[in-house]
Design goal:
alpha/beta, 9 helices, five-stranded parallel β-sheet, globular
């Protein structure tokens, strides 16, 4: 048996409380983190993008959703390209016309047709439908939140009527880095986004068959702006790195439906 020297035993006794103190402090610090902070700082727990899970998920929303399947995008694969419903313009706004708006729908045989959103829903009846609206028209929505939520409710009720087994996930509106095209500064726009996201969270809690995904929490920096490496270049649209984070967040066990 190897025996420590007296000097080594004394050193061990002196340093043990320090080690235990720091271990306890670390544990408290981790427990004190919110979900986004823990997710960002715990690399071992970062989930993979589960393509099998996503293959029965449909994404429908604004340009930041349409770009999931853009050329070279994260879902630009034969298996997953069909999971994003978009039109040729790749952008849309939540309003009364959303149900009859046309989308390029690709069936499981790979045939693409232009159908209304309602027609595509009847054809597909996905397990999950991820909806992402709120940035387009936000200067109106932040003053007329009730009208925005009424349009969202109308969309959801029709989805549930046509495809009652589909679970609906409402994504939070993503933060921005620049906002020149909106006629206001990024800090002001992000404050509107934060307020609208709170409304969406509360709305989801009181709506049956609907969950809220706070994906904005993994895209924001410490000042509330879109992280630099998640900016595709214009301050609003997202990079592939951002989409990877969004899909990983969706695939977390606690967010799976």
């Amino acid at each position: 048996m190897r025996i420590c020297s007296p000097k080594k035993r004394i050193f061990a006794l002196l340093t043990a409380p320090f080690i235990l103190f720091n271990a306890s402090a670390f544990a408290v610090d981790i427990q004190g983190m919110d979900g986004a902070a823990f997710y960002a700082h715990t690399t071992e727990s970062v989930p993979v993008i589960d393509e099998v899970y996503l293959s029965d998920t449909v994404f429908f929303g604004e340009s930041t959703t349409a770009h999931l399947s853009r050329s070279g995008g994260i879902l630009d694969t034969p298996l997953l390209r069909r999971c994003v419903w978009r039109d040729q313009s790749g952008t849309r706004m939540l309003d009364r016309r959303i149900l009859t708006s046309l989308v390029d729908y690709t069936d499981r045989e790979g045939v693409t047709r232009s159908l209304s959103f309602e027609e595509a829903l009847l054809c597909e009846r996905p397990s999950r439908l991820v909806l992402s609206f709120g940035l387009n028209g936000i200067l109106f929505f932040q003053k007329n939140t009730d009208a925005f939520l009424r349009d969202y409710e109308r969309l959801i009720l029709r989805i549930q009527e046509l495809s009652p087994e589909t679970h609906i996930l409402i994504q939070s509106v993503y933060p921005v880095r620049r906002a020149e095209s909106f006629g206001c500064d990024a800090a002001t726009l992000n404050s509107y986004i934060t307020a609208l996201n709170k409304c969406l969270r509360d709305f989801s809690k009181t709506t049956d068959g609907v969950s809220f995904l706070d994906t904005a929490s993994v895209l924001r920096d410490e000042s509330g702006y879109l992280k630099k490496n998640y900016d595709a270049g214009d301050g609003i649209h997202l990079s592939n790195d951002a989409y990877r984070e969004i899909l990983r967040f969706l695939c977390l066990d606690e967010n799976r439906i």
